[in-house]
Amino acid sequence: MACNGLFGAGQGSMIAAPDPNRKFSVHKAELVIFNRNVQKLLTEFEMLVDIVKELGEGEQRGYQALFTANEMVNLCDPSDPSSFSKAHSLAHKFFSQHNGESQHTVHAMGHCHIDSAWLWPYEETIRKCGRSWVTAAQQFEWVKNWYPGLFTKIQHYVKRGQFIPVGGTWVEMDGNLPSGESMLMLDRLHLIKDTDGLPRVQMSSPDELFSQLQADSALLCTWTGELFLELHNGTYTTQAQVTDRLRGHKVKPFSFLFMTKTETEFPVRVRSPNATYEIQFGHLQRPTHWNTSWDWARFEVWAHKWADLSEHNFGVALLNDSKYGYSIHRNTMTLSLLRAPKAPDAAADMGTHQFTYAIMPHTNSFQDASVIQCSYNLNFPLRLIRCRPDSEPWSAFSVSPPSVILETIKQAEDGKGTLVVRLYESHGGSVTATLNTNLPVREAWHCDLLERRDPAQPALITPEGISLTFKPFQIVTLQLIL
User: Fold this and answer.
1) Where do the Glycosyl hydrolase family 38 C-terminal domain residues begin and end (predicted)?
2) Cβ neighbours of residue 322 under 8 Å, at least 6 residues apart?
3) Which of 8, 16, 122, 397 has the fewest Cβ atoms nearer than 10 Å?
């Protein structure tokens, strides 16, 4: 029998380490009949209370909700089920009062967030996927393997447009916005479709929402920059051994206990109000000061292979091969190396770790100093192979100018004879680039990230190579037919 609470099976804390000696005893099991009328009445009462909390007793509609809820309590007699229908009639009268034409419309979309690796064993996550689940590839596989009948139903509803697979990663991103349980939200939806005092609510889809917004898109407020998750500081560093294993590093068993440096700091003679950090397919800038509460919250930020602090004509870059937590405050550059919290994993990161970081002073801007290329060199060092002394040098691909990075080369998903290459502009400027290859390419086509070819966009093949045009940070994916 599985015995896992919402926050696992730890003792004394929300994220306590699992207690291997914790035992549970089953004293009684009951068969019960679900009383839908009572559940419906409870939902109506809860909705009325929420309206009072949101609108306030001083607002007319809020006062009406409070009055209705009080009357329902007075009418309900738990010993007399016939009284429930009278209370329900009061709630129905309240929710039947409709809005005026000026009220907003809210598009409701079902959403569920489940961590693939949570505070319980994987077996519990698999069981939970049979009840509610998020469209990460790992959870697709679990449902397909353990609940094949349910998986077939999911495919059916995907085709009907009632179930929308979102995301292309193996496990869910930790930036998803969670919502309430799907069935609970749907049960309440019919009460607030068009109720006076509340926005209209309709079940919708992302396509429907954004199609309606398109006409007024120029008038909408937009957010520029990152949406920083303040409670995720430290997650960039913890469980480093998982990252090391994925990268092929050797992690030796823990053999003795000592305190070592958990971060490295480099005070540099550089003054700049902003530092630059690498992100996926580009980079962004963050302030080096703590002027506001938002700045203060970013005492540690995430980045990929490098961070750079530059002033006019000079700068310093901090490179690494497996660490993601950075802090650049004023003129001090810091890289978080290790953390070892005791909850929920009491043995997190205990042991010997191997990683590399480097400090790189440079003249001019980080773009002109080839900081991006140097970070790739650090993460993907040259491999020595045996060859004949008279062998000619050979390279499958080359790209010019260096601001365009050839990030990915893979075989196409639809079979042999086709390669997929992915490139991106890394400096933040528009550029025309040339992709040169020594492979016998017959055709080149633009495609999307799912490798769906765009028949209207053949890539131009010239004697010098394949000519490509990039906007700042643009990602270009090509199919090369050999």
Assistant:
1) 263-346
2) 240, 243, 244, 247, 249, 355, 356
3) 122
